[in-house]
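Entry 14. Structure prediction run on the chain below.
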Amino acid sequence: MSPTVRDFRPSDAQAVADLRRAALPAVISTPRGLVRQLATAAPEQRLRCLVAEREGRVIGAVTAHLVHDSSVPGQGSATPHVHPGHRWYGAGAALLGAAEEHLAAVGAERIFAWVENAPGPLAFADRRGYRRTRPAHFLRVGLAGAALPPPGELPPGVRLHTGADFAADPTPVFAADAETAADEPGDVPCDAMTYAHWRRQIWEQPDHDPRLTTVVTVDGEVAAFTLAATDGLGRYSSSMTGTRRAHRGRGLARLAKTASLRRARDAGCTEAFTGNDASNAPMLAVNHALGYRPYGSEWRCVRELEEG
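Output returned:
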């Protein structure tokens, strides 16, 4: 029986989180995080979540939206995920086709998708007209046995904070995130992020763990940070780590990430994940020094809609 594609319903949240975790174990996915993401999406994203259902079971999902936090218009994003135990029924093709139709209807000129670096998924993307642009890596470290550097003495003027210390006013963290995100390597610049969207979709996201998020200040100003996400299952992810331009080259990103990982271990997290663009050599070096090792890889792929 071929799968049917329909719009997501809140009652699908647990099934979608489970299949995403099975298909992409390096990424934090929870039911409450998914519901929040969909409920707080900016109207200009034109976000739509679709699920593939077979014999009464949700076996795949895709979230399609316009990339609205970039100065480059006409960019769409859609990456279908299918439960590994339910592949080969056509769910991926059906989901991607429906996502492409939605994005074309709301003005996308091209669609970006992440594709697992494996022969089957890459061949699927090739057949759908997607060309590869850049690779990225997932990394993992087991926290129980991780040889994390000791805290050590902080340099003069440098202080460590948790995200909870900025609960009343996270705008300094947003400013640091916006600046570093604009410098991230990628196909589409992330240079038009608004504070309102960042607060709804990142800072107030249920998966964001302010206890483990770490902020480094220098003489009272935010200089570096790492945003932490957890899923309540012992899994931790550093969703973004960065240093403001004026403070780079001083090891502050490594300091932030080390402190966050140590707190994650103390809080009972057993494994930590992160992801890096393959060209981001400084961050890859930091992660390797902290014990992260390769856990998988993907290709960023794009399809130009005007080419058919």
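The CA atoms of residues 9 and 51 lie 9 Å apart.
Filed with the rest of this week's runs.
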